Amino acid sequence: MRVSSVSFAPTTAIVTASDSGIGKATAVALAGTGMDVGITWHKDEAGAAATAEEVRRLGRRAEIAHLDTSLLSECGGVIDDLADRLGGVDVFVNNAGTGASTLALDMGLDEWRSIVATDLDGAFVCIQRAARRMVSAGRGGRIIAVSSVHEHQPRVGSSAYDAAKHGLGGLIKTLALELGQYGITANTVAPGEIATPMTGQEDEDPTRTARPGVPLGRPGDAREIASVIAFLASSLASYVTGASWVVDGGMLQMGPQAGSHLPDDSWRSV
Q: How is the chain split into domains, by residue range?
């Protein structure tokens, strides 16, 4: 039976890596729209507890679980457990990820595999578990993967990260084709430089940081990414699927412009 995505009314969400940064902002934003939220952490349990407290202050339930998406035999079970505790999963936000700054010629296979396992293999396992739940429930759903501008353009020193994010974008496009009949949409959100722990800018005000190479002149705020995710998670985005939403202050539009204005060869290394 074909399910419509128009009347979708989500009440439960799982956001991976929601102990800080984009994940935390997203969990709080979804709670603000009326959803109970499953929160996962990898290294920062206290951060997850702080996110949960913010969710609860908004009058919503919060459930917390440890998640390492590189442990492929275990990570799917974490999603199932959170969904059980929440009573379902209407929205799944795959935000967990990692990277490195290593030239491809210098990268060992173990480092490559760790990044790809975390950013792509684990993402597949977790998304698949959530999608199966959505199909079984028959109410539609939203799958949103946080990728990167490097889903679209590469960066020196990020071969494994770039490959994984390109792959994640391809996975989401395929899911958009396969899951549409169930009223489930699938999209990526591709941030540029965002002031988070991952970029070494935890708790910094991005409006005070100059980025001359970005048209808007600054890094982004995690809440600016969360607001786009919240839109995609809502009934307002019922006809949006298979898309990659670039949220980067115009960074990607600078390609040839930036290339023609680089003053030296320093970009060739890390």
A: 12-268
Contact 67, 122 (CB under 8 A): no
Which sign, positive or negative, has the C-alpha torsion 167, 230, 233, 84? positive
**Structure-token pair, residue 140:** 């539609």
> What integer pLDDT is reported at residue 169 of this predicted model?
98
May I ask the CATH architecture of the domain 12-268?
A: 3-Layer(aba) Sandwich (3.40)
Exposed (0-12), middle (13-18) or buried (19+): which is 46, by Cβ within 10 Å?
exposed
Q: Does the annotation count 182 as an active-site position?
A: no
Q: At CA 51, angle to CA 140 and CA 113, rounded to 5? A: 75
Q: Please, which residues bridge with residue 142 across strands?
A: 91, 185
Average pLDDT over residues 6-24: 95
Q: Which tokens go with 51?
A: 């996110």
Residue spans of alpha helices (H) in 96-221: 109-116, 122-137, 159-179
pTM: 0.94
Q: What is the mean pLDDT of the chain?
A: 94
Judge whether 144 and 188 are in contact, CB under 8 Å. Answer: yes
- Could you tell me the sign of the dihedral formed by the alpha carbons of 203, 18, 68, 100, in that order? negative
- Any residues with CB less than 8 A from the CB of 237 and at least 6 apart, and which? 142, 185, 187, 231
The whole-angstrom separation of Cα 203 and Cα 192 is 17
Q: Is the separation of the CB atoms in 143 and 185 below 8 Å?
A: yes
Q: CB–CB of 197/182 below 8 Å?
A: no
3-state secondary structure (DSSP) of residue 81? helix
Compute the chain's Rg from CA coordinates: 18
Question: How far is the C-alpha of 236 from the C-alpha of 230, rounded, in Å?
Answer: 10
Per-residue pLDDT reduced to its tens digit, 207-230: 788 888 899 999 999 999 999 999
Single out the catalytic residue among 41, 161, 182, 245: 161
